[in-house]
Amino acid sequence: MGKYSAIWGNGVIFEDKSNPEHFFITILVKTNSRQNRIFIDEKKLCVEINAPPVKGKANSAIIKLLSKTLNIPKSEINLIKGKTSHQKTFYIHIEHLNVKQIYEKLSKN
Length: 109
Prior knowledge:
Layout: E1 4-6, E2 13-16, E3 22-30, E4 37-41, E5 44-48, H1 57-70, E6 77-81, E7 87-93, H2 99-107
Parallel strand pairs: 3-5
Antiparallel strand pairs: 1-2, 2-3, 3-7, 4-5, 6-7
């Protein structure tokens, strides 16, 4: 895996070994849902968003939900892969948390 290391389960949360306190989080997204929520389904991190996938509205809603759930500023969350896809990867800066703690926060939502 090079400089990145899969730390949890099937690899939905990766720690950037070359940049401490930075993580890659891969999620599966469903848009136009009734509510905004994060959940685990068959070892996959999933997000349901009530925003439509139009002009970045769903991506913005996901960033807002991740920010609220992880208690970090939106500016610390960057969409790096999957701008128009249902599978997205975010690069996130989180101080004082490890992969297990991030997973626990995301799975409690």
